[in-house]
């Protein structure tokens, strides 16, 4: 449904900086693709050139920005990216997911499973095993397996080919993207008589409320006790979380990072792409581990770390700068030695 500029400003909690309140906006698009009836946003300074050249009918900008393309109306917001997200929800509402309860005839639901078929949706090929519980409003995607005695909360969304193994606990409003595996065995072996002997992994995984876990990510069950994914945490695709990890609330784990067994992360910790956390390492609240960093010892909260082993960001950058000077220093030493001879 189209919105006027004034309606848009109210929707995104923004203020009109420039443009007529009755200007009609009919859709959304990127800065370099938007036309005169579409909305875009400036959320990062690296896109300023696109912003100045855009043909968008309206652009959501950070507060304080007043300059821009003459043909575009401007709406100022505290967080343009979030504000644009609110607009996206409005304009794509017609194509948004519609929850239709019911159990597909080609789904397999054990007779001992607890769910209300008038309040949950189970797609074709899905399997809900004995003793499992599915909360109202939850949707189980095609070919997804909910293992024995698994408990799933309310309003969850599991896409295709998700696997949740036995006894794991899933909170409310959890989203699991395709191919996600919850509760696979932890990676544990002991060498006995020259052979690797598997250590039983008898714990579970607890995924708390409002967590989202990306495609093909694996969360291992605890050797004993629980592997915990804290409330509101968001995990990207292709992430490995090992057995007995304790992940705090509202953490961000980015693609291809890994947390080794029994590591402990506080609240609001960020682990960037391809970074790693060693076994039994503790990272305190609001720490940031930069891309490809490796945490091998405990890290204090509230700081950004990089490098391997991980250390405070500026310290690591200074070391890298010095390393880049080494070829010049070697040349100088050689020149001095030649001069001495």
TrEMBL record:
Keyword Calcium among record annotations: no
Role this protein plays: Catalyzes the N-acylation of UDP-3-O-acylglucosamine using 3-hydroxyacyl-ACP as the acyl donor. Is involved in the biosynthesis of lipid A, a phosphorylated glycolipid that anchors the lipopolysaccharide to the outer membrane of the cell.
InterPro entries xrefs: Hexapep, LpxD, Trimer_LpxA-like_sf, UDP_GlcNAc_AcTrfase_non-rep
Alphabetized Gene3D superfamilies for the sequence: Hexapeptide repeat proteins (2.160.10.10), MurE/MurF, N-terminal domain (3.40.1390.10)
Family: Belongs to the transferase hexapeptide repeat family. LpxD subfamily.
Organism this protein belongs to: Luteolibacter arcticus
Protein name, per record: UDP-3-O-acylglucosamine N-acyltransferase
HAMAP family: LpxD
PANTHER family with a match to the protein in the record: UDP-3-O-ACYLGLUCOSAMINE N-ACYLTRANSFERASE, UDP-3-O-ACYLGLUCOSAMINE N-ACYLTRANSFERASE 1, MITOCHONDRIAL-RELATED
Underlying gene: lpxD
Keywords: Acyltransferase, Lipid A biosynthesis, Lipid biosynthesis, Lipid metabolism, Repeat, Transferase
One function term, GO molecular function aspect: UDP-3-O-[(3R)-3-hydroxyacyl]-glucosamine N-acyltransferase activity
UniProt keyword Repeat, yes or no: yes
Active site: 243
Catalytic activity: a UDP-3-O-[(3R)-3-hydroxyacyl]-alpha-D-glucosamine + a (3R)-hydroxyacyl-[ACP] = a UDP-2-N,3-O-bis[(3R)-3-hydroxyacyl]-alpha-D-glucosamine + holo-[ACP] + H(+)
Pathway in which this enzyme or protein is active: Bacterial outer membrane biogenesis; LPS lipid A biosynthesis
NCBIfam families: lipid_A_lpxD, PRK00892.1
Source lineage: Bacteria, Pseudomonadati, Verrucomicrobiota, Verrucomicrobiia, Verrucomicrobiales
Pfam families on file: Hexapep (PF00132), LpxD (PF04613)
Enzyme Commission number: 2.3.1.191
Summary of subunit composition and partner proteins: Homotrimer.
UDP-3-O-[3-hydroxymyristoyl] glucosamine N-acyltransferase non-repeat region domain mapped to chain residues: 22-89
């Amino acid at each position: 449904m189209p919105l006027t500029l004034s309606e848009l400003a109210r929707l995104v909690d923004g203020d009109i900086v420039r443009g007529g309140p009755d200007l009609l906006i009919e859709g959304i698009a990127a800065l370099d693709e938007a036309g005169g009836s579409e909305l875009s946003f400036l959320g990062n300074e690296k896109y300023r050139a696109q912003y100045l050249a855009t043909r968008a009918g309206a652009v959501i900008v950070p507060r304080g920005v007043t300059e821009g393309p003459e043909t575009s109306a401007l709406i100022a917001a505290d967080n343009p990216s979030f504000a644009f997200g609110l607009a996206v929800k409005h304009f794509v509402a017609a194509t948004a997911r519609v929850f239709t309860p019911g159990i597909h005839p080609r789904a397999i639901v054990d007779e001992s499973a607890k769910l209300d078929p008038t309040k949950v949706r189970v797609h074709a090929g899905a399997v809900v095993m004995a003793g499992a519980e599915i909360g109202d409003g939850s949707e189980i995607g095609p070919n997804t397996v909910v293992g024995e005695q698994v408990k799933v909360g309310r309003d969850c969304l599991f896409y295709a080919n998700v696997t949740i193994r036995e006894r794991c606990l899933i909170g409310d409003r959890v989203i699991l993207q395709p191919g996600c595996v919850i509760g696979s065995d932890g990676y544990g072996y002991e060498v006995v008589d020259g052979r690797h002997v598997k250590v039983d992994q008898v714990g579970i995984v607890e995924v708390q409320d409002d967590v989202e876990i990306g495609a093909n990510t694996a969360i291992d069950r605890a050797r004993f006790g629980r592997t915990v994914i804290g409330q509101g945490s968001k995990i990207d695709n292709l992430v490995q979380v090992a057995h007995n990890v304790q992940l705090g609330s509202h953490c961000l784990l980015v693609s291809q990072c890994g947390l080794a067994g029994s590591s402990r992360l506080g609240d609001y910790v960020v682990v960037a792409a391809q970074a790693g956390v060693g076994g039994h390492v503790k990272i305190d609240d609001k720490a940031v581990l930069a891309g490809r960093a490796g945490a091998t010892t405990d890290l204090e909260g509230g700081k950004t770390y990089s490098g391997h082993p991980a250390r405070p960001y500026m310290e690591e950058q200074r070391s890298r700068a010095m390393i880049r000077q080494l070829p010049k220093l070697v040349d100088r030493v050689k020149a001095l030695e030649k001069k001495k001879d």
